[in-house]
Structures are given as structure tokens and as C-alpha cells.
Write a structure and sequence with these properties.
Blueprint lengths: L7 H13 L6 E2 L5 H14 L2 E6 L1 H6 L7 H14 L4 H4 L7 H16 L7 H8 L5 E5 L5 H4 L7 E3 L2 E8 L7 E3 L1 H11 L2 E2 L5 E2 L25 E5 L9 H16 L5 E6 L10 H10 L4 E6 L5 E2 L6 E5 L2 H8 L1
Parallel strand pairs: 2-3, 2-10, 3-4, 10-11, 11-13
Antiparallel strand pairs: 1-12, 5-6, 5-9, 7-8
């Protein structure tokens, strides 16, 4: 970290790692049936003095931002046919034959996961539920959908980066750069056409270029060297000033809420990076007798047995649950 910002990100991870050792009694699927837990969650949300939302990939999946299936085939059919790529996630690691092809892929990947609204209004449903509440969101998602749904930027912390940002491949340049103008140029260069809503679509003849011209391969505004995505994959990830400020706001919100009636609401968080959201939420619930932990997950709604009496575990599609809550 540089500057004068406090590192709420690191503080919460350390707190979670220290606390998770106390959950030796194992995990639980919670108590009560679905209808009972939804009613309890509705009441808890109404009574909460503060709400901390932890959002993972399952929330965007519920909103329809799927990485495989019909949506992948619609926008990446040519990459599937030529390279055998089966989904957007694996395509991000594919060894494309040249930079023009690689950045053509990434332009599509960024555009359809960052600069368009999702098929389902799940994020907007969540915003409706939080109206009038004191809340903060920490998310491992990089698709910017919270802000697209009207969440105020100062209440959001994107821990793992943003599809809308590039960073220099040169680690000495600790800055990020907005990529929207480039993405739109790159989509047009491949042959995508704007529909009546201003969204790029595959043309009727389905003729698309899979390679960008050399002059459209993105470069760093500082120094002119190559760029990479601002996505956390190793220690080269740039935590720019905006990231640091959000981390500090997250830490401040947690400290200000320590003794309040807090709802820790985990939405679609898997087991890949439990240290970022899951472990800290469990620990902070255990340490605050006024806190409640709620987990909404399609198939893995779990809590430690140690906090089972103050936990609500609800399995199923998150959008469906939010709709029932509304």
C-alpha cells in the first residue's frame, strides 16, 4: 500500500484467518426451513443498523452473466469453432497465436461482462432491498454490475480488480487506465453492430473478424508499452489509489459497526477465496453478539456450527430469494 490509506482488505483477511481457527466444531446447513429463514431474513434486514454485503460470482450468475452455454455460443461461436474454447473463463487463459487475436477475444469478454446490463435485474432487486439502510459492499466480482445498478461508488469495494481497467505490464507503473473507449472501437472493428438500445450485437450475416489490426492493440498511455488486465492473478496486480481508498472505507465501515445490529449478507460466494469474504464474515459474526450471518447460495449455503443460532442459510437461485424478500 502507498499513501496514507488504511488497509481494510488486509485487516479483514487477517481477522478472518485468526478467527476461523475457533470453528473446530464443523459446518452446518443452518436451522429452519426455507420459508421460515426468508421471513427471518426479511425481519433481520429491517431491524439491522448496518448491512455488510459480500458478493461472489454466484450473484452475477443469478443475474444471467453466465460464462458458458447459449450466451457464450452467441458471442464467441467463431472462437469456439476455430480454437475449441468451451467457455469464457477458459478462453481467458488460451494461448492465442498472436496479440491481435488475443485482444479481439478480450474486447468481447470485457464488453459483454462489463459494459452491458445483465439479463435479469438481480442487482437492482438488491439495491431496492437496501433502500434506506446503512450498507457497504465487498465483492470479488470484476464486472462493475453494482454501479450499473445504481449503487453509490463510495459504498463499494472491488477487491480483485475491474474488467473496465487496464494496467501496464511494467510493474513500475502503479496506475490503472479506463478501457471503455478502446473496447468500443475494438468491437466495431470486429464487425459487431449497434442495436436500437446502443448495444453491440452479432450482425445478421454472422461475419466477424477474430483479429484486431495492429494499431488497435492497446498500449499503456505512460511509456507506450504493453498492457494487461487489472485482475488479481499474482503480486503484479495494481492496487491503485481508488482501490486503496475503497479498502480504507471498508475498514472504517467495519470498525464503526462492531457493536451494532449488523447483518453480514453473503451472496453467491464459493470456496475458491474464502479468506476475502467468508472467513471474515464468520469471525465478525462470532465476535459481535448483535450480529447475524446470512448465506444465500445456489447449492452451498453453509455456516459454522458455532454461529448456527445466529445464521440463516438459504439455498436456491439468489434472484428468486431476493424477489421473495421484496
Amino acid at each position: 500500500m502507498s499513501g496514507n490509506f488504511e488497509n481494510g482488505y488486509l485487516e479483514s483477511i487477517q481477522r478472518g484467518l485468526r478467527g476461523v481457527r475457533a470453528f473446530r466444531s464443523g459446518l452446518s446447513y443452518g436451522r429452519g426451513d426455507r420459508a421460515e429463514n426468508i421471513q427471518k431474513l426479511r425481519q433481520t434486514l429491517q431491524e439491522a443498523e448496518a448491512v455488510v454485503i459480500g458478493a461472489g460470482a454466484g450473484l452475477s450468475t443469478s443475474a444471467g452473466l453466465t460464462y458458458s452455454g447459449e450466451r457464450f455460443e452467441r458471442y464467441f461461436f467463431d472462437f469456439h469453432r476455430r480454437f475449441g474454447i468451451e467457455d469464457m473463463y477458459s478462453g481467458g487463459f488460451y494461448p492465442f497465436p498472436d496479440e491481435g487475436t488475443r485482444w479481439a477475444w478480450w474486447a468481447r469478454h470485457i464488453y459483454y461482462n462489463r459494459y452491458v446490463d445483465p439479463p435479469r435485474p438481480v442487482y437492482r432487486q438488491l439495491r431496492t432491498l437496501l433502500a434506506g439502510k446503512d450498507f457497504f459492499v465487498i465483492t470479488t466480482n470484476v464486472d462493475h454490475q453494482f454501479q450499473r445498478a445504481g449503487f453509490p461508488k463510495e459504498r463499494l469495494f472491488y477487491t480483485q480488480g475491474d474488467y473496465g481497467l487496464f494496467q501496464s505490464a511494467d510493474r513500475r507503473i502503479q496506475r490503472t487506465f479506463d478501457n471503455e473507449a478502446w473496447v468500443r472501437q475494438a468491437m466495431a472493428a470486429q464487425g459487431f453492430v449497434l442495436d436500437g438500445d446502443g448495444v453491440y450485437q452479432v450482425p445478421e450475416d454472422r461475419k466477424l473478424s477474430m483479429r484486431l489490426p495492429d494499431e488497435l492493440i492497446p498500449t499503456c498511455p505512460v511509456g507506450g508499452g504493453p498492457v494487461v488486465m487489472n485482475l488479481r492473478s499474482d503480486d503484479s496486480f495494481v492496487e491503485d489509489e481508488g482501490w486503496q481508498a475503497a479498502s480504507a472505507r471498508y475498514g472504517s465501515f467495519l470498525r464503526a459497526s462492531e457493536k451494532k445490529r449488523v447483518l453480514f449478507l453473503e451472496l453467491g460466494v464459493g470456496g475458491n477465496t474464502p479468506v476475502i469474504i467468508k472467513y471474515p464474515f464468520w469471525t465478525m459474526t462470532a465476535e459481535n453478539p448483535n450480529a447475524t450471518f446470512a448465506c444465500l447460495n445456489f447449492s452451498e449455503a453453509l455456516c459454522p456450527k458455532a454461529i448456527e443460532s445466529r445464521s440463516l442459510c438459504i439455498e436456491g437461485d439468489i434472484g428468486d430469494v431476493l424477489e421473495e424478500l421484496i
